User: Fold these one by one.
Assistant:
Number 1:
Amino acid sequence: MKEKQILIHNKIEIVEDRDDVVWAMDSDYRLTAFNSAFELRLRNEQLGDAKKGMDLRPIYEKGVFFSPCEQGCE
């Protein structure tokens, strides 16, 4: 069990330490995970604060950076 926790922790650190915008969503377009670069991008585009469970469809519709995601998700 401890090895699994270490593996999960290491993966989280890898994603968090990246400058790339990283996020995950479920099949209902609800935000399930994200890194600080994602939070910063939302703020820079004045799209609000990142919160797990938020609906990403409005972000995909309004955000310049995120607009390709709307078509890609279809």
Number 2:
Amino acid sequence: MPGHEEPLTGGTMNAVVRVGDTVRRTAGPWTPTVHEYLRHVRGRGITEVPEPFGLDERGREVVSFLPGDVPGWPAPEWLWSERNLRDAGRLLRRLHDASLDLDLPDAVWRLPAREPAEVICHNDAAPYNMVFRAGRLVGLIDVDTASPGPRVWDVAYTAYRMAPFAGDAFAGVTYDVGHLDPPARLDALVAAYGAGWSSADVLRTMAERLTELAAFSEARADDGGSAELRDHAAMYRSDAARVAGLATRATRPDRGTSI
């Protein structure tokens, strides 16, 4: 029998509870595939993601609890350290590389694969799905929306949230953020990942990702999801238009870019 269940806040996809050293949430047809993926990458040294334990007696998925701090809003000032930015890029690269030899011919993913399907993307590698200890990135959680896709698809969304380009990134903060330079931080993230994409390439992908995310959020709201999903969708559409403009400017020789 499970022990005391402690609700975990912050997510909008499913109800999530902690039971001892495990986390439990509603399972789906994708859960066996995601658990195989987690076992695979953990077997290749990616211990920053949860360990899968199958289903409990109520049919919920069970994974290990990763202790630490998951940033909420307003975001803590330490989140924006360049060390965390670069660590996020390096962790994504390791996670992607660990999935290269994954062979699951009968895989069922929650989100559709996206071409070119170079690696398994996390698809939501953002601070609210990252675990920190003493202000240092140590984990990446909520892997249920993982699916095959291009590397830049994942990196673009992480940059959106950590460079950051998100309209709500600094909501409610009382500290100074004027020293943060999102275009320069985008370059630093890409360099830490070890890719040769141009800023314009990543920004164009970011705009496409946000447009798709807006449609996804609206569809979930229409299907009975949280009402705040409509506000999220409006922000994603606004940010997508702004980021697309930055991508155009980034292709010019004078590349002066500000947000």
Number 3:
Amino acid sequence: MCLQPVGGASHVGSEDCLYLNVHVPMNASAPLPVLAWIPGGGFTNGASSFNGPDFFVEEGVVVVSLQQRVGALGLLSTGDDVVPGNAGMKDIVMALRWVQQNIAAFGGDPDQVTVGGESAGACSTSHLLISPLAQGLLRGAILHSGEAVSSWGVGADPAVRAFRLGEALGFSTNDSRELLEFLLAQDAADLVTHDDELLSPEEEAQLPLLVWMPVLEPDVEGAFITEWPATALKDGRFRRVPVITGFTSGDGMEAVSRKRYLEDAAALQQLSDSFVAAVSPQLHLPTPQQREDAAVQLRHFYFGHQNITASDAQALVDEHLTRPRAVSSSTFNIFPF
């Protein structure tokens, strides 16, 4: 697997990691449809071994499980043409080009390639519907618990994280090329084991927030994405292919468990006290005031004016099975597109 943290200063994997697995049904007549699967892991973890080919190969589908660079090695960006970013996303594109060129030798049909993924893998798949680099690489998409237009689909101000990483490793500069030269001289493991030091206290309070995410690149040759996904979708600049999208029955548990709200009373109280600050930056609205107003509505909708308790946190996880506390009716639309 690609180099990634496993808690604290520990890590697993290698820089030598751009491999994929091809699973072929036995005794099936070619050409066969192909599923290319991108693993999840919050853009910080993930490996092709996370997901097996069972069930699909039994139905005569060739399964390609791939992996890409994650964390700083896959998504660091200086916000300019020195390190434009999205290296891991371009790894995915390279893997899909390999599939187009070689899958016929394994009995697969390059004209029947569906790309899918879960969590960050789904977000990556969603970006493929927009990226100019993915032209001709997929005929359908499966998005399981993630999309490019989610609050964690694109990272804002990526250069801030890049320079914070340099500072965490003892190097302070405001020059992109100097930072790149410094980072290239470091042990690769050090680049993926300092994520806890890269978020400000304000960012730590947001719900949810990943350290590394895809970024908008400058308009340079080979850019993966250069505009907000919501803009591309609204303007009709996306691949018109069949899409299956969905989520698990407890998707909210990811954010709840990441913040330890069900077991850390202090963390839950902090959410209760600073709900608007934690939620408003994640909302797709054009101005800070509109985002804050919508966050106030969200808090009132789910919790009324009461303190948020552990039972409320669980209710957010099971939101599709429960009802929010009764509130007066009002217009509520935080996703205008």
